[in-house]
Amino acid sequence: MFDTMTLTKIVGGFCGTFLVFLLGAWVAEEIYHVGGGHGDGEQAYSIPVEDGGEEEPVEEGPAFEEVFASADVGAGERVFGKCRACHQLEEGANAVGPYLYGVVGRDIGAADGYGAYSGALSEVADVWSPENLNHFLENPRGWAPGTSMSFNGLPSVEERANLIAYLDTLDE
């Protein structure tokens, strides 16, 4: 039933169908993106909009100090899972990043045995206070431009407060 000619026709049919789909995709791309010229020229008519004068105030969450006062250490231990890839909790056990044992209250750039600090951190602050840690953990590259920490940050103030409270309990 299956001979060489039948198999050749089946493979040729699949290849031909694939070629038609590729050709169709190319034609559609040319029609809608390159040939149409969307956004290349000036807008023909612009609708004037009156400025209301006042912007609506952006509603911010609770202050860090309030959240930190009631932080959950157990939740902070769970949040530390995001840090575990690069940081260790044991004193002197540096990894990709410095160890975090006793980090709250420690001088910035003072982890024993860790020499890969970028220098950008010490230009911003002197000590890892809870407030400094909060700003750094929210947006590391925004708070200390040029830092070598590649973590994007923790947008939730509750997560940051819980994590800092957990790190603060390690050296008690």
From TrEMBL:
Task: Read off the SUPFAM superfamilies from this record.
Answer: Cytochrome c
Q: Which UniProt keywords apply?
A: Electron transport, Heme, Iron, Membrane, Metal-binding, Transmembrane, Transmembrane helix, Transport
Domain (Cytochrome c): residue spans on this chain = 71-171
Keyword rRNA-binding part of the UniProt annotation: no
Q: Which GO terms describe its molecular function?
A: electron transfer activity; heme binding; metal ion binding
Domain of life (superkingdom): Bacteria
Per the record's keyword annotation, is Cell cycle included, yes or no?
no
Residue stretches spanning the membrane: 6-28
Signal sequence region: none
This protein is called Cytochrome c-552
Q: Which gene encodes it?
A: cycM
